[in-house]
Design goal:
12-stranded parallel beta sheet; mainly beta
């Protein structure tokens, strides 16, 4: 136990000083029995007791949880070993983990990575670590684990779950009960729910190993889904599964080494999910290594899909009416049957803007495969450099490719078939080399190359240049970094201008008719 009389007194004073308009309830698994949760010195030992207090309290209310391990079958009104036990979120509640707690000079210090706060479904304390998440379904040591570690039901007042590791949920039941959905978190009819800085690790479900959404629109930011699995009846969404018009907004999240039948990282049926600045790495599925999307209007912005694998759709498989891919990177994904990058079938409209495909492999379509029924594929300002056979169209779908660099060539305005001159593909750097300046993500600095990529200033001339740094040629670059602050700079055969010249739009150190033409082409854009 982490305690001393001096530390207890200091923590009591700090708790009183920090109390604001919200009621604060304190939880520490090293607390003495019989606490009332009013300070760190008298903290509840069990999180369930704090949640019961929060339920009866006026809202808003915050529950501050210290480092340690908390299980949903522990507490005054809980039955040990009860698999149906879960931590329930509620309207007006902010459940916050990562506090130092008792035994530290300042109990209120909050460092989520240092003071790990774990919500665990391992009720028996006997879980065997599964090196391969695909083995979670048949691991006998998890037979008595909680079906859902956390549950959220009919929430609309923006409850918050922040700073927790959620692990060892085992939703291995069968339909029609809920016991087959959401091993880590089951979210139903939640119009507002914020998840921040949470890690979902080692959870299993028939659908939605880490998290399952039903008609819900949660917001996730800076969360990680690692080593979760979904298989058996359902088998969709190793990390996250969503159905019935669920529209999660997911920002800056990581999906790594998750496993499923469909969508190792994520799966969604219906709704309009949005993923921004997310990384999908080494996920595995039969369909859609990282993502399986069905009947959804989905968008991916500035996402990275690396080394995911499947039979169909190494990075993603889709049967959705609309899929938007903007400034995304697809590297080293593989499909045994078709679609190393994307495998599409069933009336898709796929729009790809400023994306980079490199090192993806499949017998049918290293980058894209279109099969069955009518699909439509638009690609602009992108780089498809997987060694050839980039697009396999077996459905006679309209495929339009313009202002893109395609290995082996593809007909269309402004298309190229030349070495894109990536910064260092062997180290995962797909910025374009430039004698005018290239951003080095490893050293976090601008460097000068001895060659310049032909993909610089070669994207769609009618597209805005966005945040490209000066000099930018007043035309967007091809590839995943075009239009961003990390876009490679233009080179005009001489060193960049020492200063910006008024009226010099393209950055060639001259004010001439070309600048006027560029200005006119973007007038009132």
């Amino acid at each position: 136990m982490r305690r001393s009389a001096l530390v207890m007194g200091l923590c009591l004073a700090l708790a009183i000083a920090s109390a604001g308009s919200s009621k604060i309830i304190y939880v520490d698994d090293d607390a003495q029995p019989g606490g009332d949760g009013k300070s760190w010195a008298t903290a509840y030992r069990y999180l369930q007791d704090a949640l019961a207090d929060a339920k009866a309290a006026d809202k808003p209310v915050e529950v501050h949880v210290a480092q340690g391990v908390y299980k949903p079958d522990q507490g005054a009104n809980q039955k040990p070993g009860e698999r149906n036990a879960s931590f329930y979120l509620m309207n007006g509640l902010s459940l916050l983990g990562g506090y130092a707690g008792i035994g530290v000079a300042d109990c209120n210090v909050r460092e989520i990575e240092l003071y790990k706060t774990v919500l665990s479904g391992d009720l028996g304390g006997n879980d065997v670590v599964a090196d391969d998440p695909c083995d979670l379904e048949n691991e006998p040591s998890r037979a008595e684990n909680s079906y859902h570690v956390v549950r959220a039901f009919m929430l609309d007042a923006t409850p918050v779950l922040e700073g927790f590791t959620i692990t060892a949920g085992n939703a291995d039941g069968d339909p029609p009960s809920d016991r087959y959905k959401g091993g880590g978190l089951l979210c139903e009819l939640c119009k507002n729910l914020l998840l921040a800085k949470c890690t979902f690790r080692g959870n299993f479900a028939r659908s939605g190993g880490g998290m399952f959404n039903y008609n819900s629109n949660p917001r996730l930011t800076s969360c990680s889904f690692i080593g979760n699995a979904a298989s058996g009846a359902g088998g969709f969404g190793g990390g996250i599964a969503g159905t019935y018009r669920s529209s999660p907004t997911v920002n800056n999240c990581t999906f790594s080494r998750n496993c499923a039948v469909g969508g190792g990282g994520i799966s969604n049926h219906g709704g309009e999910p949005k993923f921004t600045s997310c990384d999908f790495t080494r996920n595995l599925a039969s369909m859609g290594g990282a993502a399986y999307i069905d009947d959804s209007l989905i968008s991916f912005e500035s996402c990275k899909f690396r080394f995911n694998s499947a039979s169909i759709g190494g990075a993603a498989a889709t049967t959705s009416p609309r899929c938007l891919l903007n400034r995304c990177l697809f590297e080293g994904n593989s499909a045994k049957v078709r679609g190393g990058g994307i495998g599409a079938s069933g009336g898709n409209n796929i729009t790809v803007t400023n994306c980079t495909f490199s090192g993806n492999t499949s017998p049918k379509g290293n980058a894209f495969s279109l099969e069955r029924r009518q699909n439509a594929l638009w690609i602009v300002s992108s780089i498809l450099w997987d060694g050839g056979h980039e697009i396999r169209d077996e459905s006679n779908s309209p495929v339009t490719v313009t202002y893109s660099n395609v290995f082996g060539s593809w007909p269309g305005a402004g298309n190229l078939d030349v070495d894109p001159r990536f910064g260092d593909a062997s180290r995962g750097d797909y910025h374009l080399k430039s004698q005018g300046g290239r951003w080095d993500p490893i050293d976090q600095t601008w460097i000068i190359d001895d060659v310049t990529s032909p993909c610089i200033d070669a994207g769609d001339p009618n597209s805005p240049i966005g945040y490209e740094p000066f000099p930018n040629g007043a035309r967007v670059n091809m590839g995943a970094y075009g239009g961003t602050q990390e876009a490679s700079k233009s080179y005009f055969g001489k060193a960049p201008c020492a200063k910006i010249v008024a009226g010099d739009i393209d950055g060639d150190c001259q004010v001439n008719i070309r600048d006027l033409v560029i200005l006119a082409s973007h007038w009132l854009e």
